[in-house]
Design brief:
The protein is an all-beta fold and 110 residues long. It has a single domain, classed as Rieske [2Fe-2S] iron-sulphur domain (Rieske Iron-sulfur Protein, 3-layer Sandwich), CATH 2.102.10. 0% of the residues lie in helices and 44% in strands. The protein has no helices and 10 strands. Strands 1-10-9-4-3-2 form a 6-stranded antiparallel sheet, with no helix packed on it. The protein has a 4-stranded antiparallel sheet with strand order 5-6-7-8, with no helix packed on it. The radius of gyration is 13 Å and the shape is globular. The two termini are 24 Å apart. Bound molecules: FE2/S2 (inorganic) cluster (FES).
Amino acid sequence: MSHPMLIRLCSTIDVLEGQGLQVTAADLVVAVFRVDDRYYVIDDACTHGPGRLCEGTVEGDIVECNFHNGAFNIRTGEVVSPPCLIPIRTYYAEVRDGQVCIDPERPAEP
Ligand code: FES
């Protein structure tokens, strides 16, 4: 049974630990991360400015925007370092047939 709202993003093997992958799908531009063999998807556009979080520096479950060095928790979307103030959107993600998929209608599971 497949959930009707699942959107396929990429193959799991395309996502490397410690490095975000930018994916555009269904009008969304997101960044996919692998942390401890789980997959997390957040908005790619930093909430602070023009930074792209797929290009950020990843340490554990934190991504640091390389524009002004603000940082977010990849799992929860919380801001962990200024100058960012607004949390980043996180998406419900699951793996189906080796593909990372999101359901924008469902709450994310940190
Ligand atoms: S644009 Fe990301 S910290 Fe400013």
